[in-house]
Structure formats: structure tokens, C-alpha cells
Amino acid sequence: MTPLPVPRLLVWRHGRTEWNATGRFQGQLDPPLDPEGRRQAAAAAAHLAADGLAADATVVVSSDLDRARSTAAALTEALGVPLRLDARLREHGMGAWEGLTRQEVADRYPEQYADWLAGRPVRGRGGEDVAEVPRRALAALRDLPETEVAVVVTHGGTAARLMEALLGLGPEHRRLFGPLANCAWSELAFQGRRWRLLRHNTAAPRLPDPASGGAPGLGPLRAGASPEEGAAGAVQDADAVT
User: What is the DSSP secondary structure assignment for residue 60, as one 8-state letter?
Assistant: First the structure.
């Protein structure tokens, strides 16, 4: 693959929304971060800013949807760099499923839901063709200025399709990686003549939660019950359809 203007990428999923917590498909609808999502963004931004990101060598580019934009803003404020917004980094448009819970989709569109769970093409749903997602995301990255590292703040489905495209993985390898948790990120670098995945699904420790009297958080950040995590314990990606 042709190298991008930036040889190192941090692909960062937005923090949690109420819809993530209740297992509701978001697509290109625009629910905001919930209080937990804002805490996640603050913790991740502090961790990334302290982890060697230099303001004069880092560009931060985000989907223009509020949940991604607000997540990215926590980092740009910490680094003191401008925030670039690009609609081409939005989530996969999911047509009639947007705004519905998994159970509502299963009840209203049982054949489509069965195809999605099985990884088959989902027909008749509307929305966006899955092949368009990496095309537009890569186009956004090709328009970045030359610098050392780009933090790309996006969504679960778009992040997965973008990483698959960078690594040269075809549709038969879709869902090879586990989905990014809310506010987790993956690191990729262009080395030699190809992109390599250096870290996947990395998350910062929790910041203290004021609601618990300032007690330290425990363990890594998690996505909560979201469509990207799947149903009945099976790892699914809400946008991983062929």
C-alpha cells in the first residue's frame, strides 16, 4: 500500500455514549458522550499526552460526529494543538438499524439480523456499502499534512475497516481483530513497505470517579454493553458486515 503522509497512526475510538451502554446501533446518528464517556476521554487524553506525543509532531483528526469530536477535544486541549474535523471518518451508515437496539433489530428484521450475526451480507437495510467505509477513511488520511504521528479519532466500525485496509486484509479476514472498546486505541506504523499493527485495543487506567467519592478506578476501560461487542457472548462488530 502507498504510504500516507504520516508514518505512525493511533486509531482511537470515541468514549462511551448512553446508546453504547444500552446496546443501541448509532451509525451516523449523533448521541453525545455520557458521563462515563467523558471520564474515559479525560483519562485517555491524559495518558496519551504523557506517553510521548509531541505537540509539534502530532496531528489530531476526528470524525465530526459529537461523540468523536468531544473525545478528540480532550486530547487537543491537553496537547495544545488544533483539532481537524473530517466527515469522512464518520461511522458506517447503517440505514434502518440506526437508533435501534439489537433486540429491536432482531424483532423487526430477523433475516437481516441473522445474516449480520453470521457475517453474511446484510441486504435491504439501506445505509452505506461496507466497501465505501475504508475508501473514504483512507482518503481523509491521505489529506493530512506530513508529520510524525496522527491520532485518528473515529468509531468502532470505521476503525476496524480502516485497519483492515492498511494491513491489506480482504473481506475474508473481516472480524479478525476484536472490536475496539470505547476510548481504546490501536497503533500502526509504516515500516519497510507495509503497515504493521504494533498495539491493539490499548486503554488508559480509569481516573477517579467523583460519584464514588474520588476512589481510584479499577482495571482497564471497557465498552459496556454495545452492539460492537455482540450478543450472547460472541464477539461481533456492529458494522462488520460483508
Answer: E
Q: 108 phi and psi, to 5 degrees?
A: -85, -35
pLDDT, tens digit only, all 242 positions of the chain: 668 999 999 999 999 999 999 999 999 999 999 999 999 999 999 999 998 899 999 999 999 999 999 999 999 999 999 999 999 999 999 999 999 999 999 999 999 999 888 878 889 999 999 899 999 999 999 999 999 999 999 999 999 999 999 999 988 787 788 889 999 999 999 999 999 999 999 999 876 665 655 544 434 444 433 344 443 333 344 443 32
Between CA 158 and CA 11 the distance in angstroms is: 10
Give yes or no: 91 in active site. yes
- What does DSSP say about strands 194-202 and 185-191: parallel, antiparallel, or unpaired? antiparallel
Distance CA 12, CA 200 (A): 10
* Amino acid identity, position 110: P
Half-sphere exposure of 225 toward its Cβ, with a 13 Å CA cutoff? 10
Q: What is the pTM of this model?
A: 0.88
- Cell 480482504 appears where? 170
Q: Domains plus CATH for the chain?
A: 8-229 (3.40.50.1240)
CB 64 within 8 A of CB 85: yes
Q: Which of 18, 36, 47, 91 is catalytic?
A: 91
* Nearest in space to 132 (alpha carbons), one of 77, 175, 92, 76: 92
Using alpha carbons only, give the angle 228, 214, 33 rounded to the nearest 5 degrees.
Answer: 30
Whether 14 is a known active-site residue: answer yes
Choice among 14, 47, 92, 155 that is catalytic? 14
